[in-house]
Amino acid sequence: MAEERKTVTFIIRRQDNPEAESYVETFEVPYRKNMNVISGLMEIRKNPVNAQGKKTTPVQWEMSCLEEVCGACSMIINGKAQQSCSALVDKLEKPIRLEPMRTFPVERDLVVDRSRMFEALKKVRAWVPIDGTHDLGPGPRMAENKREWAYELSKCMTCGVCLEACPNVNDKSDFIGPAALSQVRLFNAHPTGAMHKGERLDALMDDGGISGCGNSQNCVQVCPKGIPLTTSIAAMNRETNLQAFKNFFGSDH
Question: Is the C-alpha dihedral spanning 205, 207, 208, 214 positive or negative?
Fold first, then answer.
């Protein structure tokens, strides 16, 4: 007797465009061992027929690396914001419920506009600026003890999960969120990046900066990379206080 083919039920919150009302659609997807949520979405894309047997539009989502590095495939899975590439179907409660993250504006279905997070990184100059293309020679070395914790901060993949979990990041607030705060600590620790340390700290003292943090500590609990976000926020609190004194007394040192 042939074995009955197993399926996985996906209940997906969909939205046709940014202005449209959201709705829920259910899909039955053929089960495969070791499949992840992205595999299920790919099956729906191949055969966009819902559980009622009605032809529908393929579900839209984002992905890139498929190995929890880019952060693009983040969504809410069974009520928890996480990456759909690393969410294994065998380990999820059934049926599997997928929703877009709600901190960011929904573009379509599970695709959201994460511009808010990237604009925050621009505001705090989250990069090491080096002008010109000529050879500057080897850069200064970082002390090993500093390099170790800086590496942990560099794991950030701008997935947006920490902003999704933060109660202070919403459409009524201009708070830049925990990811950008931690990146200031990272780039201020870099020997070359430290040249612009004051500018980054000044940005944190502007509207929407570190004063917007309510210390809920949700961010550190949900970060998929285990980044010590609250440690960074505490460090930046100290640094901005020192910077405020330097600014008041007109000292750059």
Answer: positive
